[in-house]
Specification:
The structure holds 2 protein chains of 2 kinds. Chain A has 12 helices and 2 strands. By secondary structure, chain A is mainly alpha-helical. Chain A starts with 14 loop residues before the first helix and ends in a 16-residue tail after the last helix. Classes of the chains: A mainly alpha, B alpha/beta.
């Protein structure tokens, strides 16, 4: 079984892996904002080029990255088909019409753009999760949200809850397997009957799992107390996150891409001389 | 006055309407540098003692003092827990982080030490338990004994003066148990650590300088290895003497030996060959 707590993290050593997780997290959010600024096909091409460069830099096999697309392939196809079929903007660019099915050129263009947008929205964050461990992400989140602790938001507590949850996932998976084996040994059947029967069969697994989770939580709380845990009070961290030069370059590089996107979208500096680049073009 | 002092402590668990007394009128002292084994069969209250010692549970009656500070005072608890580290039974339920060094760092991080000092302590603690090379690894792939050694390192990194092992070997296989006991032995030798080992294995109790026996929440025996002379009495409260001692007793009954006051295998062999 794959280590669930690692998520889809792909272990290797690359520039992207070594970037400060805080920087990666902030850039990932900014990236999502950027996607919504893209309006033209050439803009999307730029987006995909950016992702391609990231993937090459991260040394993650491209197939591994594409795997994240496979999970939402259905969603992409579904939205594409629906947008094309139910587009009723009308107009004179009807390409195909048969009874109630009418396919417009504008609909096709809009639907393709939406599909590209969804792909970009999934690919960017998956580069983040492929190159950053969940623990690093939680840590980064805690440090980024630190100012919010000043207004009494339990930032540290949320972060520690998340990291303990991540820590317990493999333990609970293991425990579930054990309980299932134990129930099977007593002739419980989990993989026969209809869906309701199967759901019902899981009950004798869930209840012991639930009970033992509480017991674990109790013991873990004792162990944490014993190790001088007092919440965020006076707590320091072993790992210091320090920004390096490469983080600066990452931010600058991203800003350049974002700027290029804005340039294309808003037709700054008269870049509209190529009709393809303007919002009105494709 | 001892470093740890229990003064007429009583504690009862509230399970519904029925109160189950776990510890009754328990008075006990441990001095610095001692190696004490606290033994008793299941339900004798020995694990409750482990939770009373650093204020995880507070006594219903009486008081517990660590280095002169009462556990009943909330403001003392942080200082008390810095001095007394407790390692529990199940290593899986003591791990906080998914990477070993992060887990060991949890304690010193709570103390608010500077990062370099935390890192140094993590390195030292992992070396102490012989897990130095696993620093960057994850605990999930480790054996039970290795996990428990990491748990001990997590407590050691706080640099406590007393180490309490609450049945820390009971979930381990014989190999894992031997690993943990070896670590305890080296901590005794190299760091002169005060150790309170709570166990129901009499073989483990033999390693200690002093053995205290609990039964029904009361202290019934407290002394050196000579308590094993009272083997029948131990048996009556559900504890069996160490295997060697039991063999010696049988041999004496059979008329092979005239003396059954033997606790280790070499001595038994010597007595037999005489």
């Amino acid at each position: 079984m794959r280590d669930v707590s690692i998520g889809q993290y792909y272990q290797t050593d690359s520039v992207i892996h070594r970037l400060d997780p805080r920087v990666k997290l902030v850039l990932a959010v900014a990236y999502i904002v950027m996607i919504f600024f893209i309006v033209s096909f050439i803009g999307y091409a730029l987006g995909f080029l950016f992702i391609l460069i990231l993937v090459l830099l991260s040394r993650v096999p491209p197939l591994q990255v594409l795997r994240s697309l496979r999970m939402i392939l259905f969603l992409i196809i579904f939205t594409f088909v629906l947008t094309v079929l139910f587009y009723r903007g009308g107009g004179d660019d009807l390409l195909f019409g048969w009874q109630f099915i009418k396919i417009y050129k504008t609909a096709l263009i809009n639907a393709s753009k939406m599909a590209l947008r969804i792909m970009l929205l999934v690919l960017g964050p998956s580069v983040l999760t492929l190159t950053t461990t969940p623990v690093e992400l939680t840590d980064a989140l805690e440090r980024l949200l630190w100012p919010l602790a000043k207004i009494k938001l339990p930032v540290h507590e949320l972060a520690i809850i998340m990291s303990i949850a991540l820590r317990l996932i493999p333990t609970l998976v293991e425990e579930t397997d054990k309980i299932i084996s134990a129930q099977k040994a007593r002739c419980a059947e989990f993989d026969s009957g209809n869906i309701f029967k199967r759901a019902k069969a899981l009950l004798p697994v869930l209840i012991p799992l639930f009970v033992s989770s509480f017991r674990r939580a109790d013991e873990l709380a004792f162990a944490m107390d014993s190790r001088c845990y007092r919440g965020a009070v006076g707590r320091t961290r072993m790992k210091v996150m320090r920004l390096a030069l490469r983080d600066l370059f990452a931010v600058l590089g991203f800003c350049a891409v974002f700027f290029a996107v804005l340039l294309l979208t808003y037709n700054w500096f008269g870049f509209g001389f190529i009709p393809l680049l303007t919002p009105g073009g494709y | 006055m001892g470093f740890i002092k229990f003064e007429n402590v009583s504690y009862a668990y509230n399970s519904g309407a029925a109160e189950t007394p776990a510890v009754v009128d328990f008075s006990f002292e441990v001095n610095e540098g001692e190696f004490v084994a606290l033994v008793g069969h299941n339900g004798s209250g020995k694990s409750t003692v482990a939770k009373l010692v650093n204020g995880l549970l507070l006594p219903d009656e009486g008081a517990v003092y660590v280095d002169g500070m009462s556990t009943a005072e909330r403001s003392n608890l942080f200082e008390i827990r810095k001095r007394v580290g407790v390692v529990f039974q199940n290593p899986d339920n003591q791990m906080i982080a998914t990477i070993i060094e992060d887990d060991v760092a949890f304690g010193p991080e709570n103390l608010g030490l500077p990062p370099a000092e935390i890192s140094a302590r993590v390195g030292w603690a992992l070396e102490c338990v012989g897990m130095g090379e696993h620093r960057k690894g994850t605990p999930f792939r480790l054996s039970g004994g290795q996990k428990q050694r990491v748990a001990i390192a997590g407590v050691l990194a706080i640099k406590p003066r007393v180490l309490v092992l609450d049945e820390s070997t009971s979930m381990l296989d014989p190999v894992g148990r031997a690993e943990v006991l070896r670590v305890v032995g080296s901590l005794r030798k190299n760091e002169n650590m005060t150790v309170i080992m709570i166990t129901h294995f009499m073989e483990e109790a033999l390693l200690a300088d002093r053995i205290a026996v609990l039964n029904g929440g009361r202290l019934v025996m407290d002394g050196g290895r000579e308590i094993f002379k009272r083997a029948e009495e131990l048996e009556s409260i559900g504890l069996s003497a160490p295997l060697v001692k039991r063999v010696a007793m049988k041999l004496r009954k059979a008329g092979v030996l005239d003396d059954d006051d033997i606790l280790d295998a070499d001595a038994l062999a010597g007595a037999l060959c005489r």
